[in-house]
Amino acid sequence: MDESLEQQNQPRAEDQENEIVTEGSAVVHGEPAQDGSVPPKVDSEAEVLGEKVSKQIIKEGHGSKPSKYSTCFLHYRAWTKNTQHKFEDTWQEQQPIELVLGKEKKELAGLAIGVSSMKSGERALLHVGWELGYGKDGNFSFPNVAPMADLLYEVEVIGFDETKEGKARSDMTVEERIGAADRRKMDGNSLFMEDKLEEAMQQYEMAIAYMGDDFMFQLYGKYQDMALAVKNPCHLNMAACLIKLKRYDEAIGHCNIVLTEEEKNPKALFRRGKAKAELGQMDSAREDFRKAQKYAPDDMAIRRELRAVAEQEKAVYQKQKEMYKGIFRGKEESGAKAKSTNWLIVLWQWLVSLFCRIFRRQRVKAD
């Protein structure tokens, strides 16, 4: 459970293969995905990719570009250009989609042209004419796209596999898919150790893409166990990276996915607790840490986090106590001042009254 690279004595080989450790690594600040309700505003110059497709880069990528028949993994949001009606958003599902270049559906031809020009990690805004989208008739089922609608895609290429035959996940055997996902996970762990968090997350997301819901629902017995042994560590590793990147809500989402499958997973509870603590959700964080401690009672990292939560709550209580003490002290001082002021008024009234009586007596004697 202890996530510190420096503080671990001898990490087990099993831990190294399945899950990364994170706490001792340098913090890297990244940008979370945009809100996504409307297309992003992009100032970069448009690159013309074809007669009906152009691209504006939002974030630069790295490495080479995919070739024909590469299996690309990507996230995207899609809008109709004129009305800005959003009709698809893969980010909401937390699972990237697969696109085999050269074997895409007709309505995704413009998207495929754009993706073929992008590097791993690149994010761009694609402008696609209706001829390379849903065409003259549009689409009235799902997704709902009006006839002759030009399209906008906000796309991020997570990565791609170069395969000469363009073998899609659906054409792979169970062992091939699990093996491909495991290789991606190991690549992600290596990138993480080099503090390349964004690139590591791309590998984890690609591994998760191999373990999609459509695939997992078909598995049982040893194959289900084998798949979960790859998939869940990838979600936990994603959470660890996202905590480093201060993207706490996203980290909580990945921990929730693991806890749906394994409600007693102490690492998922621990990392969700850390993310909640960073968001100031101290009661909920303490509950997660206590559950994690129940399933891993000897883990020192959980104890440290529980102490940190208790110390923070104590500091908040002390601050509130001082604040209220100041308020009551102010009231007491105001009361004492008021009493002092009242005595002065009484004394002044008595002196005035005494002066008036003396003045009257002098007048009577004079008369």
TrEMBL record:
Residues 1-46 are annotated as: Disordered. Keywords: Isomerase, Repeat, Rotamase, TPR repeat. Signal peptide: none annotated. Residues 69-161 form the PPIase FKBP-type domain. The keyword Repeat applies. TPR repeats lie at residues 266-299. It catalyses: [protein]-peptidylproline (omega=180) = [protein]-peptidylproline (omega=0). Its EC number is 5.2.1.8. It is an enzyme of class 5 (isomerase). The keyword Cell wall biogenesis/degradation does not apply. One of its GO terms (molecular function) is peptidyl-prolyl cis-trans isomerase activity. Residues 1-11 have a biased composition (Polar residues). This is peptidylprolyl isomerase. It comes from Microthlaspi erraticum.
